[in-house]
Amino acid sequence: MLPQWYPPAADQPRSGVDGEFVREHARAVSRFDDVVVLHTSVSPTRSATTAMRRDVEDGVVTYRARLPNLPIPRLSGLLLPVGTLAAIARVVGDWGLPDVVHAQDHAAMRAAIAAGAMRVPFVVSQHWSGFARGVLTRRDRVAFSFALPRAHSVLAIHPDAAEHMRAYRIHCNVQPLVNTVDTAQFVYGHGPRTGLLHASGMTEEKRVEDLIRGFAILVRRRPDATLTIAGDGPRRGRYESLARELTPAGAVRFVGFVAKHELASLMREAAGFVLTSIIETFGCVLIEAMASGCPVITTSVGGIPRVVREGEGLYIDGCDHEGIADAMQRVLEGQHGLDLEAIATSVKDRYSHEAVGRQLAAAHKAAVDAQL
User: Fold this and answer.
1) Distance CA 174, CA 154 (A)
2) What's phi and psi for 101, nearest 5 deg?
3) How far apart are CA 88 and CA 93, in angstroms?
4) Of 38, 110, 196, 363, whose CA is between 20 and 30 Å from 256?
């Protein structure tokens, strides 16, 4: 597996999700396939050498290669594909020739070159929202136009991915893919629930400002209401200032980035989880909340309706602050009408490591069989 994004090792600092959803895919398919992960990135500091480390994480052999960062940006950019191919050669020397290469998003170009050199098939999983937002650069278009049609399959999270790619005149074998949840960690909670919860990278498309404005209306009706916001991002300071301006002290709590086990605990304790995104290919936090028995309030955008089906959550207009407040009040007062235990069971059936791992393993086998 050649991911574009991947979490750092356990002993390295982190401030965001960093491709956690890709690691969950690696963990899921490792139940059925022998998996090795290679994540390459350019060193964050000036360096002329490659540093490479090997870890075993949840049974998955994981290599991380930090490639040179030279004073000439264009030269450093060229070193990423070249360095990736060199790192692949080292992994193959240690681990053996793979039967199939599985790349993710922008790593597809490197995977196409490497797979061609090794004469093995490759597949691509496509998570990035750039196609849906229509923000591909010329360099993106060239890379994806070369790589995606050559892949045996493009496993796409967004339900309209094929249409988005055709808009860029990219025609390939698009197959549906879903994200996965660790149902051993995100488990149904039976205890008391209080307060509301949000978790994200606080990017612009998450519309945390609208969430806070909706909560400010709610807290005028329910002075005891609280909102916990987990995660970190470039807009966090702005949102903290807005919360101080619009809500009483202590009503909104920013807890920063939290590990998965901490997020699972927050979800088991929350009366409701709120996501006000205007763009979302899937929404991993939604299935984590649903698996935990936490009612979800969300927008009907992108891939969310496929994830939160009718009767599995409360839908809102992300720009309707009064509507956001109404939905939050309903879950706080237990008036949501959702069968939370049945929803948690459905999530386990659809999105567990077992279920999604089988889907990924089948895609890998199909790619290998097609090459025989």
Assistant:
1) 5
2) -105, 135
3) 8
4) 38
At residue 330, the pLDDT reads 97
| Beta-carbon contacts of residue 226 (< 8 Å; ≥ 6 apart) | 194, 195, 196, 250, 251, 252, 253
The pair of structure tokens assigned to 11 is 């002993």
Tokens of 191: 């205890």
Q: What is the residue type of 125? A: S
Other C-beta atoms within 10 Å of 256: how many? 10
| 12 contacts: CB under 8 Å, gap ≥ 6 | none
Residue with tokens 């790589």: 147
Q: Which residues pair with 36 in a beta bridge?
A: 61
- Fold agreement between 20-180+352-371 and 196-351: yes
The CATH code of domain 196-351 reads: 3.40.50.2000
Instruction: Write the single-letter amino acid at 180.
Output: T
Average pLDDT over residues 281-289: 94
The answer to whether the beta carbons of residues 5 and 18 sit under 8 Å apart is: yes
pLDDT in tens, 161-218: 999 999 999 999 999 999 999 999 999 988 889 999 999 989 899 999 999 999 999 9
Give the Cα separation of 124 and 283 in Å (integer): 19
Whole-angstrom distance, CA of residue 80 vs CA of residue 34: 26
CA–CA dist 205, 277 (Å, integer): 6
Q: How far apart are CA 339 and CA 257, in angstroms?
A: 30
**pTM, to two decimals:** 0.90
Q: Rounded to 5, what percent of the chain is helix, strand, coil?
A: 45, 20, 40
Contact 312, 295 (CB under 8 A): no
Q: Domain-by-domain residue ranges, the chain?
A: 20-180+352-371, 196-351
Q: pLDDT confidence of 69, banded at 50, 70, 90?
A: confident
In angstroms, the CA 161 to CA 144 distance is 13
Residue 177 dihedral angles phi and psi, to the nearest 5°: -140, 150
The yes or no reply on domain 20-180+352-371 and CATH 3.30.450.20 is no
